[in-house]
Design a protein that fits this description.
The complex is a heterotrimer of chains A (296), B (344) and C (282). Chain A has 296 residues and is α/β, with parallel strands linked by helices. Chain A is built from 11 helices and 11 strands. In chain A, 35% of the residues lie in helices and 24% in strands. Chain B has a domain of 202 residues: MetI-like (MetI-like fold). Chain B is globular, with a radius of gyration of 24 Å. Classes of the chains: A alpha/beta (296), B mainly alpha (344), C mainly alpha (282).
């Protein structure tokens, strides 16, 4: 087994504002192996999105951020060497966003943004080459008229179309790791399902590993190999999809599963901090322990 | 170019309507005020016959609506009446004084853009840090200080105490004005190949243009800053960073272009405000522009000349806003393309 | 538009040192203006008569800001200049603000031809640079203090009309307005009791900023010789008169110039602070 493309060890994260320090991650450990599809599931505010931000190296340079522990991305120590990480952002590590339309700059054509992505990935391409590459990439994500899409502005395309564009951009530089932060949550359900199917197809084809961040367990079931459940900045359960869905052991996971179909409006039961389950150590299902070479 | 042309004609029509409104406003204000305009114009020593003759010639005995009709007819024919002070057609007077003012305003406008925009960009980039505080303080100071105060301060510091710049006027004594082509000394000098005159004219422009530009620079920097900061919060900037676009590229292009759209509109207003503030600066630097004429005719109660001057300034004000609208629609694809969609 | 509860707004305001500086400057300037009779060293120098034994003196212990060409103490005249500028600004806003606010309420809430008439009139006024319009009005009237105030007032109301109009347009769709209409409240009740209080933060912020800008406008007019006439101590005309004696008697125009700067700066910082504290669009 090769090194994991994302390796997080005992990560603690706190924000300081004035004299007040708020810890949002209380020591989490997770890993994503090459080509593997891993989901991180929790409700909003549980710390799942900041984990993705850390993996991209985006929080490290902010003021008032206190980080402890290890975040290793594609072999780079993201905490000690954010500059090295910055150099691989956009080609070895990429990201897909919640709302594709707002993630694309409204005053540039898709083609211009695509060319930027290619160049930021370290490719020295002419405009014509960039266009050819982009057209091929858009054809791969089944966009009917790539040339026309490239000449369009984001607001001229539908949300689903923009999501396809986003996926094409995320994978065009053949990344090792793709971070997907609630992809398509802003879109309607059918489009979202299509998007996920397309993403599944594309990452398998490109052999990229994925860290899929979601609040929706049922979405994760279709997509991921392994799942981490995060609650209030702490991982509470970890297992393969079949294990976790077949035998959810943590009360929070069970609550998530029960709430899944009506998640749009309904809330989750609030687990009181003094409930024993919250203080329990992370529940790890069989065969989902840490990779051998990391156990030291 | 189709949709932009459509936008242009649409805005032009609105501007013309507003201009007609302005003409009514200023015309009626001029007629409503107490006192006989003819008597005021001719002075207390004129005989009653002279006053009556002038009243007749100027249609002052007609009802005010009819008077406005006469005024409008002349206006359409490009006739703004005759100045009682210079005894020349008002249009001719304005044509003589306007270029000096416009040259000053254009140079100040260029300074406003060339200094204000980058300053705001730097402030946004270092938001909350030392350069930001400095830029904010400078821009608040610049906005709060009337142009004539800047004029007086700059004159004292850079023309009297440390005389690096000329004190006043458009050219040094002994330098002959270039042949009139545009009325802009700098341009005319360049076109006629008189480099020495060009530099002398430019040299004279620096202090007044700076005094005129400072408040606009501050305003522009402030707006660019807040607009950039707003833009930096948008998801597409997160996207740009996640995809490794360099911060430089983001600041110069990717965040700058969308941030420019709201800034530009205000920039247009600031530019137009300079037309008014030029009056103050011209006074400080004895600049032979529209201000000298405007203040003179106001002090002499020269009605036609006052109305004419205001009309010309309002027209330039509207033209500026028109140009800005067109530029914004070119930069903002949303406006440009929605126009196209509306047509098809 | 969003506006915050007062307690939060005050906390926000207090935490910003720049806003506090603005408040201090405003209190300082207003205090000087109010106490002018008591604290000025030479209160008699307000008028045309000075001390002929002490003309054109550079700043000294006896005359902090020097004296002018007829021996009047500049500090005294500047403090009275504050009083004049501030009272003129107050007068202008006391008239222009209610007129503008009521027209804006009417245009925004009534709609139809009322809206059309008021807003097109506003467009016309806003199409002429304020200073130029005020100058033109001064061109038709004798240059006196009252007329200068009148001229500035005439061009000032449209800004309030447009501001309130925009607020009303966004508020009219809010639930509380609909609720009041459904239970049959009269339109004047809806306008003045329901909508108007929600315009207050924006209007208050604008007033604060405007005190500075009216001072600027009035002093600009008198700088051009179209406003307040001597011997009334006006900051703008003091700068203009002093400029004739540059650079030898530099204090004659520099100190009044700096005084204008200080006054406008104070109201601007305070207004900015209020804008941020109320989260108001002005």
């Amino acid at each position: 087994m090769s090194d994991p493309v994302l390796n997080i060890r005992d990560l603690k994260l706190a924000f300081r504002k004035g004299r007040q320090v708020t810890e949002v991650l209380h020591g989490i450990s997770l890993h994503v192996n090459a080509g593997e599809k891993v989901a991180l599931v929790g409700e909003s505010g549980s710390g799942k999105s900041v984990t993705a931000q850390l993996a991209l190296g985006r929080l490290q340079q902010e003021r008032g951020t206190l980080i402890e522990g290890l975040v290793q991305v594609a072999g780079i120590d993201a905490t000690r060497d954010p500059r090295a990480l910055a150099r691989v952002r956009g080609h070895r590590v990429t990201m897909i966003f919640q709302d594709p339309t707002s993630a694309l700059n409204p005053v540039f054509r898709i083609g211009e943004i695509f060319a930027q992505v290619l160049r930021a990935g370290g490719r020295h391409v002419s405009d014509a080459e960039a266009r050819a590459t982009a057209e091929a990439a858009l054809a791969e994500v089944h966009i009917p008229d790539p040339a026309r899409a490239l000449a369009s502005y984001p607001f001229q395309l539908s949300g689903g179309m923009n999501q396809r564009v986003m996926i094409a951009m995320a994978l065009v530089n053949e990344p090792e790791l793709l971070l997907a932060d609630e992809p398509g949550t802003a879109l309607d359900v059918t489009v979202q399902a299509q998007t996920l199917k397309l993403m599944d197809e594309m990452v398998t084809k490109k052999q990229a590993a994925v860290l899929f961040i979601s609040h929706n367990l049922s979405v994760v079931r279709e997509f991921a190999d392994r799942v981490y459940v995060i609650y209030r900045g702490k991982l509470v359960e970890h297992g393969r999809v079949d294990q976790l869905f077949g035998n959810p052991r943590h009360p929070y996971t069970r609550a998530l599963l029960a709430a899944a179909p009506k998640l749009v409006g309904g809330g989750l039961p609030d687990l009181p901090e003094h409930e024993p389950a919250f203080r329990d150590p992370l529940i790890v299902h069989e065969g989902c322990g840490e990779p051998e070479e990391l156990r030291t | 170019m189709g949709p932009i042309l459509r936008l242009l004609t649409h805005r032009l029509a609105i501007s013309l309507l507003v201009l007609v409104g302005v003409s009514m406003l200023i015309f009626f204000v001029a007629r409503v005020v107490p006192g006989d305009p003819a008597r005021i114009a001719l002075g207390p020593n004129a005989s009653q016959e002279m006053v009556d003759a002038l009243r007749e010639a100027r249609h002052l005995n007609d009802p005010i609506i009819v008077q406005y009709g006469w005024f409008l007819r002349d206006l359409v024919q490009g006739d703004l009446g005759t100045s009682l002070y210079t005894r020349r057609p008002v249009t001719q007077d304005i044509a003589a004084y306007l270029p000096a003012t416009l040259e000053l305003v254009f140079v100040a406008g260029a300074l406003m853009i060339l200094i204000g925009l980058p300053l705001g960009r730097v402030a946004a980039r270092y938001s909350g840090h030392y350069p930001d505080h400095l830029a904010r303080l400078l821009s608040v100071l610049a906005v709060c200080t009337p142009a004539f105060v800047w004029g007086v301060i700059l004159q004292l510091l850079l023309a009297y105490i440390w005389p690096v710049f000329p004190l006043e006027g458009r050219l040094s004594t002994g330098v002959v004005a270039p042949d009139r082509i545009t009325g802009f000394y700098t341009l005319d000098a360049l076109m006629t190949g008189q480099l020495g005159t060009f530099f002398d004219a430019l040299y004279h422009l620096i202090l007044p243009a700076t005094a005129l530009a400072l408040s606009g620079i501050g305003q522009t920097a402030r707006l660019t800053r807040s607009s950039m900061i707003e833009t930096y919060r948008r998801p597409y900037i997160d996207m740009a960073r996640a995809y490794g676009f360099s911060e430089r590229k983001i600041a110069r292009r990717y965040a700058f272009r969308p941030a420019l759209i709201p800034t530009l509109t205000i920039l247009g207003l600031d530019f137009a405000a300079m037309l008014a503030n030029a009056f103050l600066v011209e006074r400080v630097f004895v600049w032979p522009g529209l201000s000298r004429y405007g203040v003179e005719v106001i002090l002499r109660k020269d009605l036609d000349a006052i109305v004419g001057t205001v009309m010309v300034i309002a027209a330039m004000f509207l033209i500026t806003n028109l140009v800005v609208d067109v530029i914004v629609s070119i930069i903002n694809p949303r406006i440009r393309l929605s126009e196209r969609r509306a047509k098809s | 538009m969003s506006s915050r509860p007062q307690s939060i707004a005050w906390a926000e305001f207090r935490s910003n040192p720049i806003s506090i500086l603005g408040l201090v400057l405003v209190v300082f300037c207003v205090g000087l203006a109010l106490l002018a009779d008591v604290i000025t060293p030479y209160p008699t120098h307000v008028g045309p008569i000075g001390d002929f034994t002490a003309i054109n003196q550079a700043p000294s212990a006896a005359h902090w800001f020097g004296t002018d060409t007829i021996g009047r103490d500049l500090l005294t005249r500047i403090i009275y200049g504050f009083r004049l500028s501030l009272s003129m600004a107050a007068m202008v806003l006391v008239i222009a603000m209610p007129v503008g606010v009521i027209l804006g309420l009417l245009a925004g809430y009534k709609g139809g031809w009322i809206e059309f008439a008021i807003m097109r009139l506003t467009d016309i006024f806003l199409a002429i640079p304020p200073l130029v319009l005020a100058m033109a009005i001064m061109g038709f009237l004798p240059a006196t203090l009252t007329n200068a105030m009148l001229a500035v007032t005439v061009m000032w109301w449209p800004w309030y009309t447009r501001l309130v109009y925009n607020v009303v347009r966004s508020e009219a769709r809010e639930g509380y307005v609909l609720a009041a209409e459904v239970i049959g409240a009269s339109s004047s009740h809806v306008m003045f009791r329901e909508i108007l209080p929600n315009c207050a933060p924006a209007v208050l912020t604008k007033i604060t900023l405007d005190v500075g800008f009216v001072v600027l406008m009035v002093s600009s007019l008198s700088f051009l010789g179209l406003g307040v006439q001597p011997p009334t101590p006006d900051l703008g005309s003091m700068v203009a008169d002093g400029a004739k004696y540059m650079p030898d008697a530099w204090w004659l125009s520099i100190f009044p110039a700096l005084a204008i700067m200080l006054l406008v700066l104070g109201f601007n910082l305070l207004g900015d602070g209020l804008r941020e504290a109320f989260d108001a669009e002005v």
